[in-house]
């Protein structure tokens, strides 16, 4: 088994998806080829990087606001419950007093106008208190929410700028695993500026590690809605000589439904010097794009 055949099966080897005999052949090939072994180790690091991404803790301010919101909700619920109990007591006309046997309906006939007025006034005061509390709560919550939204937006922007700077610096590192980790920061960005896109395109085309280039292709797919990204990936087909990179670009451009890539993919399909698997993927890609 030659190096190109070994490299095509590396991902399936990591995922334990190879048949026993084929897995044995690939492992024997790795043992006899230092270059393939290095690429295999880099690819394992790439997968571990995805699995070990840390969770971002919620800011303390958000926790404090949540608990304040919860306490206000409980206060509203308690007042509402008291209000409904008083109303229920007034309207339960068939209930019999357990002390003297006189029904509430009979007692109601002896109420004076003053007692009725006092009772209703109490209900109105409670209702007004509830209304005031609810109004204060909602206006206060709206104010806090707006302040939090602005603070969170600013925080997100600062984090994005920091990660962008870290990524650009880490792409200059000698270690392939560091460069892979740098590219993976892209997945935490909501958008990428021109400097970031240009850096990823440069990595895709010229990085000395095949696995770093593959990760750059995956990262660029994340921003595939940008026309300049699709154009850069189409042009990259002319530069790539490794089968894995050629296949990755073909599949990515098909997923992005980039019809303008048909001509470049067709050139790969007609190139007799390329491995059969690349030509097959190219033909398959052209067929899919023609259907669009």
Characterization of the model:
- It is a single chain.
- With 292 residues, this protein is mainly alpha-helical.
- It has three domains: 1-52, no CATH class; 60-165; 175-292, Leucine-rich Repeat Variant, CATH 1.25.10.10.
- The chain contains 14 helices and no strands.
- It has helices at 3-8, 10-14, 20-31, 34-51, 60-91, 104-109, 113-170, 176-184, 194-206, 210-221, 227-236, 243-255, 262-270, 276-291.
- Helix 4 runs parallel beside helix 10, helix 7 (113-170) packs antiparallel against helix 8 and helix 12 runs parallel beside helix 14 (276-291).
- The longest helix has 58 residues, at 113-170.
- The protein is globular, with a radius of gyration of 34 Å.
- It comes from Thermoflexibacter ruber.
- InterPro entries: ARM-like, ARM-type_fold.
Draw up the topology in text.
Layout: H1 3-8, H2 10-14, H3 20-31, H4 34-51, H5 60-91, H6 104-109, H7 113-170, H8 176-184, H9 194-206, H10 210-221, H11 227-236, H12 243-255, H13 262-270, H14 276-291
Helix pairs in contact: 4-8, 4-10, 5-7, 7-8, 8-10, 9-10, 9-11, 10-12, 12-14, 13-14
What keyword list fits this structure?
292 residues, mainly alpha, Leucine-rich Repeat Variant, 3 domains, 75% helix
- Specify the CATH architecture of the largest domain: Alpha Horseshoe
Separate helix tally: 14
| H and E string | HHHHHHHHHHHHHH
> Which structural category fits the helices and strands?
mainly alpha
**Using only CA atoms, what is the Rg?**
34 Å
Distance between the first and last residues' Cα? 38 Å
> How large is the share of residues in beta strands?
under 5%
Helix content: over 70%
Largest sheet: none
* CATH fold-type name of the largest domain: Leucine-rich Repeat Variant
- Count up the domains: 3
Query: Whole-number average pLDDT?
Result: 75
- How many E strands? 0
The stretches of 5 or more residues where confidence is low (pLDDT under 50) are 93-121
Question: CATH homologous superfamily of the largest domain - what is it?
Answer: Leucine-rich Repeat Variant
| Name of the level-1 CATH class of the largest domain | Mainly Alpha
Shape: globular
